[in-house]
Amino acid sequence: MGDVQSRNVTSVITLLTDYGLEDGYVAACHGVIATIAPEARVIDVCHLIPAGDVRRGAAVLAQTIPYLPQGIHIGAVDPGAGGARRAVAVEAGGQVFIGPDNGLLSWAVAASGGVRAAYEISNQDYFLRPVSPTFLGRDVFSPVAGRLWGGVRPSDLGPEIPIGRLVSLPEPTSLLREGSVEGEVVSVDRYGNTQLSIAAGDLQALGVRVGDTLGVWLGRRQLALPYRETYAAVPPGELVAFADSAGLIAIAVNSGDAAQRLGLPPGAHVRLSPTP
């Protein structure tokens, strides 16, 4: 896409929110975009992010962005909605990310090559009127996305923000030590699968292969889990570790909820190692 002013009709607008599917919030955003940019193609990334879970939203957007066409990407997960949080437009790798400046966009921006420029969204000429302070997705992000798709430049939206002043979430940690690798739970999906910050390549570096048994330390607890290609490789109700579609290690229960069974919320510390 490059400069949004020279966009082509194949670029898309995407939506990621915690609005759910039981109300008309998502439809309202679609309606605003369709009114302003009727030819734009809109992709729904996810609307079932747990309410206010910025970290989960950041993980979903970052892991989805490599498979999306270049476009304008709206993120609306903000437990501080209605407060003083500024709205931002961030250019990165030919993409434009729109959302609250709360770190939600930061991992996807990094996955797109890093910030090229960022702007505060403050030019009310591009907003709906009146603006509801609790529904910026409809009244600010969606109309701004439609205007960008139509040729408005990000720099038209408001003053430029120094890159270092953007809010960023801490990157998930992973540390390879002699004989083990330490990480954390990045996110938990709707099935209760716990995605770790540990890459499959880290286990390969330790000599762990699919079919082996994996030592798992969760605080003071120690487990021995089968390391397989998929959760379906173990009987229903059994725990398993596998490399997920993002290339990260996940712990799951076949037909069950691993996060609930093990008490593993996002951010929980995990250590993995080969078993003798």
UniProtKB/TrEMBL annotation:
<feature type="domain" description="S-adenosyl-l-methionine hydroxide adenosyltransferase N-terminal">
    <location>
        <begin position="13"/>
        <end position="158"/>
    </location>
</feature>
<dbReference type="InterPro" id="IPR023228">
    <property type="entry name" value="SAM_OH_AdoTrfase_N_sf"/>
</dbReference>
<dbReference type="InterPro" id="IPR002747">
    <property type="entry name" value="SAM_OH_AdoTrfase"/>
</dbReference>
<feature type="domain" description="S-adenosyl-l-methionine hydroxide adenosyltransferase C-terminal">
    <location>
        <begin position="183"/>
        <end position="271"/>
    </location>
</feature>
<protein>
    <recommendedName>
        <fullName>SAM-dependent chlorinase/fluorinase</fullName>
    </recommendedName>
</protein>
<dbReference type="Pfam" id="PF01887">
    <property type="entry name" value="SAM_HAT_N"/>
</dbReference>
<keyword id="KW-0949">S-adenosyl-L-methionine</keyword>
<dbReference type="InterPro" id="IPR046470">
    <property type="entry name" value="SAM_HAT_C"/>
</dbReference>
<dbReference type="InterPro" id="IPR046469">
    <property type="entry name" value="SAM_HAT_N"/>
</dbReference>
<dbReference type="Pfam" id="PF20257">
    <property type="entry name" value="SAM_HAT_C"/>
</dbReference>
<dbReference type="InterPro" id="IPR023227">
    <property type="entry name" value="SAM_OH_AdoTrfase_C_sf"/>
</dbReference>
<comment type="similarity">
    <text>Belongs to the SAM hydrolase / SAM-dependent halogenase family.</text>
</comment>
